[in-house]
Amino acid sequence: MTLADNLVNYDASALAEAIRQRSLSAADVVEACYARIERLNGAVNAIVTLDKERARARARAADLALARGEAVGPLHGVPVTVKDALHTAGLRTTAGHERLRDFVPERDAAAIDRIQEAGAIVIGKTNCSTLCGDLQTSNPIFGTTNNPWENTRTSGGSSGGEAAAVALGLSALGIGTDTGGSIRVPASYCGVYGFKPSLRKVPSDGPAFPLDAAPRREDHLTVIGPIARSVRDLMLCYDVLSGESCSAATSAPPPRVAWTHEFAFPMDDAVTAELERAFDALRGSAAQVEKVASPFDLWKTNLSYFMLNMYEFKTKETDAAFYRLFWMFEWMRSAFRGGLDGSYARLKAEQRELSGRFESFIEAYDCWVVPATPSVAIRHQKTGRSVPMTVNGKEKKVEYWNAVGGFAFFVNLLGNPSVVIPVGRSKDGLPVGVQVVGKHGQDASLLRAARFIADTIGQLRTA
């Protein structure tokens, strides 16, 4: 078996250790990644831009540094890919938008600086939806990214290229962005691990948008985080991105887990079945697991998220007609209630109230486990079209955004950390994941709880 064949049996932590011990060379690992990309990427269209010359030079330099006995970083020699929405100096960054087709940034995003300072080697950029505006991954420059488990289905979005690449072992680690599930939905659909940090824990500069010149409010939704093949990789990458230290902790007491998978909200029977199995398995462990009711009405919470997304993130470049229509009605709705500033202030007050309610709810627990997505990976379809699902044995069409990202949006609204863990497969072999949500700002504690849960019920398989 060649290294290229065997690469999927390593997570980033194992590769870093093998490179440090010089049982593998960084140069050979990078070449193995490129061999897998050559063989497998065509079927999924995950990686859209390669950086072969610089990556090979950096790999040779990494091996020479080890030969000289130099101190090295925790990701020394590890090949990584970066979502095509994040600035990478000297490497094309398009965000899937025609106006950025030939854009080459002069500097790296701060997060990319940090992983490279830790020794990671960027081997390429991965596909994303146009301006990160969809939960499927497709754009007019590079086309559509397929799910590595079934090519007729989506990999999720907007970091779908990252999740597909990591699932196939095309790279050891991926860096994505998450405004409304853009790390977590693809991680669940592709059967890998994803982490959305708390707001402001990781520098969030460096996206290639927005492009419009309209005045914008500060984005309190978007974060940058990793997609990986294990929770220990998420912990290692979080250490690098945040400057905190959680990966060094070897053990933690079994977590106190609040668990909810029964919502007044549509969920596909394939997801329900796997979550019930996972709940029984976790309840049989040393963790303290309690089924609880949701503190939110997700329909209302998701509506609040969508409204805030329009104020803080959405750009007219993604859908000019909808953008104009929304702001026309919003202006009319707000005209006698303090105008747009008044409406925005009320949204922010509601956001603070929901955050306080959640912190009170989770105070007695270490984390809250909910479904990662209401559906398994959906078939490629037009954005906004209702999604067919089987709910309680009956065929049902569910509104697009809630069918795909219905359990993701509230976490961005709150600004809390969240980890997606693959826990099983549907009868059709499609991944199913859970989402482990933590207390605001307590990312390290959440990751330690997620590691226990993943060790108990996680099921990573090779795509």
From TrEMBL:
The keyword Glycoprotein does not apply. The keyword Hydrolase applies. Residues 28-447 form the Amidase domain. It comes from the Bacteria. Keywords: Hydrolase. Gene3D superfamilies: Amidase signature (AS) domain (3.90.1300.10). One of its GO terms (cellular component) is endomembrane system. It is an enzyme of class 3 (hydrolase). Its EC number is 3.5.1.4. GO terms for molecular function: amidase activity. This is Amidase.
